[in-house]
């Protein structure tokens, strides 16, 4: 077993607002090894993006703050690393792709200058060398006429092309970990498949560990080896994709999988989990999912479940020993 | 781009034509009579009438306007009623004086205004932000004449650091070539005079810069705050870029369009609106030139002065419009 490149232990990220503190991420653990693809799934507002921003040290602060836990990169604790150390890590060791390709590129600089910048922040090389590398990167992510594209501006590109540029930029310095926060949500289905294929290809070729944050179980099934299911700032289930798909344990995971439409069945209505994600911190005791759970017991409202199991972990009182 | 600029310059013609008509009519609506002003209150009716005839003021207004326009098209601004000198010769030194003062004032306003706005946005809600914005608020509200008087009292009367009046030392006057004294002294290699000219420029340009500086600072701050929340700034941070470059390169270029608009408008206003500053600091600029002409009902001078100011106002806005495309590649002119 190799050591994980990125290991997050008991991470708690709270937001301190005028209405009091909001536990957006409330003690989550996950890790990812070299060459591995990990999926993090959950509904909107369950703390997926806050987790990734915490790892990158990009939380809007104030009001956001990591209050507890550890983020280990190659064994180094970077939870409270200095801004200058984080700058060395960002882009170079841990890179990130964002959800909105339309707005994630700076509209007033050319594609080339933004790629060259990403390269030259971490690599000592001439502008000419960086430009050549930028063109190579654009070719790597499958963009046509790369040598013209470097001199074009983001508004001249489609959403899918821009997301490819974002991936090229993230891969510029061969990062060890790539965090992709909903990389395909804003794209249409055919482009989604292309982008996912591209990420798979890069993962195989460069051994970059990838963390895909998504609410799309289809994406997870296609890409990931392991899966972390988040609910209201906590991990509720963790295991291999195979185990979780074949044998989902947590009622929330079951609900998520059931709500994926199946082409072979002709249902009139899709399954949906009743209710919506509670406001973080609004449920003071018991299981966070209890109010929406089909299997709710009296204990669930009183006792907070712990994550149990060996390879396939679940946070639910149904599985207590 | 070039065809756009050409079209905009051609559009100047109807603008200036309309401007000349408005100025021409409004002046004649103000009570008062140039002949009366020249001859004094005790002048006889015959004397006034014969002067009217000599100045061409007894003709119908449209005849006067057409002859004024005809002269204008040949580059003849007419003759000042008061000094009897050709206006085209008289106006340039005044215009150059105002342009020099406005230029220096705008440099001060842009440099300090933009930087104060940027740092306020960068360190939002810090002591610097708070202090800078309070100063900006005071700057916007401060009447120029009051600030000018305070400056003169403090730096001239009390401290004797800087001269309080004029463009140069009267006993050692600058020999004008272009009438931009900063350039003229350098052309003649008179560095002693160059220094004197700079000392004369400091107080009036600071007084003149205050309001634009405050407006630019506030506009920069709000524009930067909006840009710094955007996704591409987060991308730049995720690349590992330094905050300094994120602020001064990535954010400022995106935030610059509204700042540029304000700079353009303020520069235009300074050219015509420096009358108060020019009066307090005895600056022989175009504002004072036109103001004096209004007092004497010197019709040709008022008309020409306002037309020249309007011309520069429109030109500055044209330059600003063209600069938009330089800062934002999404703006294209056809």
From TrEMBL, chain A:
One Pfam family linked to the record: oligo_HPY
Subcellular location: Cell membrane
Gene Ontology biological process terms, A to Z: peptide transport
Molecular function terms from GO: ATP binding; ATP hydrolysis activity
SMART domains: AAA
Keywords from the named record: ATP-binding, Cell membrane, Membrane, Nucleotide-binding, Transport
InterPro entries listed in its UniProt record: AAA+_ATPase (IPR003593), ABC_Ni/Peptide_Import (IPR050388), ABC_transporter-like_ATP-bd (IPR003439), ABC_transporter-like_CS (IPR017871), Oligopep_ABC_C (IPR013563), P-loop_NTPase (IPR027417)
UniProt membrane topology term: Peripheral membrane protein
UniProt main location, coarse: membrane
CDD domains: ABC_NikE_OppD_transporters
One Gene Ontology term, aspect cellular component: plasma membrane
Span of domain ABC transporter: 6-257
Family note: Belongs to the ABC transporter superfamily.
Matches recorded under NCBIfam families: oligo_HPY (TIGR01727)
The protein, known as: Peptide/nickel transport system ATP-binding protein
Automatic annotation (TrEMBL), chain B:
Subcellular location: Cell membrane
Gene Ontology cellular-component terms listed: plasma membrane
Membrane topology: Multi-pass membrane protein
Annotated protein name in UniProt: Peptide/nickel transport system permease protein
Membrane-traversing stretches: 9-30, 101-120, 127-149, 194-216, 255-281, 301-327
Domain ABC transmembrane type-1: 95-324
Species, as recorded: Scopulibacillus darangshiensis
Keyword annotations from UniProtKB, A to Z: Cell membrane, Membrane, Transmembrane, Transmembrane helix, Transport
Signal sequence, renumbered to the chain: none
SUPFAM superfamilies per record: MetI-like
Family from the record: Belongs to the binding-protein-dependent transport system permease family.
PROSITE patterns: ABC_TM1
Entry-linked Pfam families: BPD_transp_1, BPD_transp_1_N
Gene Ontology annotations of biological process type: transmembrane transport
């Amino acid at each position: 077993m190799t050591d994980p490149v990125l290991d997050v232990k008991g991470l708690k990220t709270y937001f301190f607002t005028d209405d009091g503190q909001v536990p957006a991420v409330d003690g989550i653990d996950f890790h990812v090894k070299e060459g591995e693809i990990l999926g993090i799934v959950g509904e909107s507002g369950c703390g997926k993006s806050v987790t990734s921003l915490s790892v990158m040290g990009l939380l809007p602060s104030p009001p956001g703050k990591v209050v507890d836990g550890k983020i280990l990169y190659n064994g180094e604790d970077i939870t409270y690393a200095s801004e200058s150390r984080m700058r060395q890590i960002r882009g170079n060791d841990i890179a990130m792709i964002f959800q909105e390709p339309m707005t994630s590129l700076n509209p007033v600089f050319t594609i080339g200058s933004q790629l060259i910048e990403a390269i030259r922040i971490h690599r000592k090389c001439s502008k000419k060398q960086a430009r050549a590398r930028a063109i190579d990167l654009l070719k790597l992510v499958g963009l046509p006429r790369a040598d013209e594209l470097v001199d074009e501006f983001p508004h001249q590109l489609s959403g899918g092309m821009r997301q490819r540029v974002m991936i090229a930029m993230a891969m510029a310095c061969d990062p060890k970990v790539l965090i992709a926060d909903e990389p395909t949500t804003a794209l249409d289905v055919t482009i989604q498949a292309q982008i996912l294929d591209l990420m798979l290809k890069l993962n195989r070729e460069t051994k970059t560990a990838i963390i895909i944050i998504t609410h799309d179980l289809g994406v997870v099934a296609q890409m990931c080896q392991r899966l972390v299911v988040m609910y209201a700032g906590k991990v509720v289930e963790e295991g291999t994709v195979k185990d979780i798909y074949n044998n989902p344990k947590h009622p929330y995971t079951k609900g998520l999988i059931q709500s994926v439409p199946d082409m072979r069945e002709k249902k009139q209505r899709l399954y949906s989990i009743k209710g919506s994600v509670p406001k973080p911190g609004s449920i003071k005791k018991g299981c966070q999912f209890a109010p929406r759970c089909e299997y709710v017991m009296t204990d669930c409202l009183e006792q907070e479940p712990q994550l149990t199991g060996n390879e396939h972990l679940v946070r639910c009182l149904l599985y207590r020993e | 781009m070039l065809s756009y600029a050409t079209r905009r310059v051609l559009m100047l013609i109807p603008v200036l034509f309309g401007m000349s008509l408005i100025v021409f009519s409004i002046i004649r609506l103000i009570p008062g009579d140039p002949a009366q002003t020249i001859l004094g209150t005790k002048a006889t009716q015959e004397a006034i009438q014969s002067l009217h005839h000599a100045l061409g003021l007894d003709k119908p207004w449209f005849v006067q306007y057409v002859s004024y326009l005809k002269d204008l098209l040949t580059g003849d601004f007419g003759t000042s009623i008061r000094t009897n000198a050709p206006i085209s010769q008289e106006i340039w030194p005044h215009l150059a004086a105002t342009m020099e003062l406005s230029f220096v004032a705008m440099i001060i306003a842009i440099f300090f205004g933009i930087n104060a706005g940027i740092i306020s946005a960068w360190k939002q809600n810090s002591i610097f932000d708070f202090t800078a914005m309070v100063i900006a608020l005071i700057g916007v509200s401060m009447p120029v004449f009051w600030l000018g008087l305070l400056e003169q009292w403090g730096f001239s009367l009390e401290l004797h650091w800087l001269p309080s009046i004029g463009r140069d030392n009267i006993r050692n006057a600058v020999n004008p070539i272009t009438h931009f004294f900063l350039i003229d002294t350098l052309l003649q290699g008179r560095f002693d005079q160059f220094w004197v000219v700079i000392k004369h420029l400091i107080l009036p340009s600071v007084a003149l810069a205050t309001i634009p500086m405050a407006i630019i600072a506030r506009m920069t701050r709000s524009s930067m705050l909006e840009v710094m929340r955007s996704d591409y700034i987060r991308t730049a941070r995720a690349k590992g870029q330094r905050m300094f470059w994120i602020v001064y390169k990535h954010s400022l270029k995106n935030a610059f369009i509204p700042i540029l608009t304000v700079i353009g408008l303020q520069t235009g206003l300074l050219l015509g609106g420096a009358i108060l500053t020019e009066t307090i600091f005895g600056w022989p600029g175009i504002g004072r030139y036109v103001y004096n002409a209004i007092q004497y009902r010197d019709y040709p001078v008022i008309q020409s002065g306002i037309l020249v100011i309007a011309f520069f106002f429109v030109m500055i806005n044209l330059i600003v419009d063209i600069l938009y495309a330089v800062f934002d590649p999404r703006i294209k002119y056809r």
